[in-house]
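Case study B.
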Amino acid sequence: MNDTIVLVVAIAACAVAVHAAWHLWRELPFSNPLFYSVAALQLLLVAVAIGGFVALGRTDRDVDGVLFVSYLITMAVIPIAAVLWGIAEKSRWGSGVVVVAMLTIAVLAVRVEQIWESAHA
Amino acid sequence: MPESSTASGFGRVLVAVYAVFALAASARSIVQLSTKAGEAPLAYSLSALAGVVYVVATFALARDHRSLALGTVGFELVGVLAVGLLSLVDGELFPDQTVWSDLGAGYGYVPLVLPLVGLWWVLRGRRDKAPGAHTTRGHDQ
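Model:
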């Protein structure tokens, strides 16, 4: 896992968080454009997770595999959970759920990087 | 009455944050207990306890079980204050981190703020809903 990928994920998650926060600010519920933003991030996360599994299989580093894989899977599942939970709420707070979820993904992305970097070759 | 459920409106967001902490605290304790249980039994048991409390609080808030929510969120506040202050006074007590160590500093102090917001939210909703209250529904003062 190189840090550029992690940085891209963290920035993308923050961008979707801003999009959702704008909805929250304007008192808008979960909208179609917001759904597309989340869906795009979802595709990115699935790609990163698969890339991460491959990288884990190839590396000589002593990475904590279970921890690393569970972080990648958790990151890829959060947007789905956020959409299911947020879409049921027909007020601005449905968008609030997405803000929380996206910030969580950004934090997890940074942790994934730390797990990878702290493992010595 | 879905409007006044603890899981609707702002409560949606609260439940989402609780779910994140339920996952973080229980996952952390599972990793700690399964890989190095003997190293810091007190810290790891506390992680496990915190995980269970967050899971039950998330369930209670999501399902509108108010007394259960009050109990678990209250326990959480006591827990984060007690563990937080003890870990600041005597770091030896908790050789490894828990979610509640240093008043939740490792998690951006969210564990300290969360129970306060949770209590406010549950109590605020209950006042409107309590059957024995002096205000009747629709005739709020």
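Chain A is about 85% helix and 0% strand. The remaining cases will be described in the next quarterly update.
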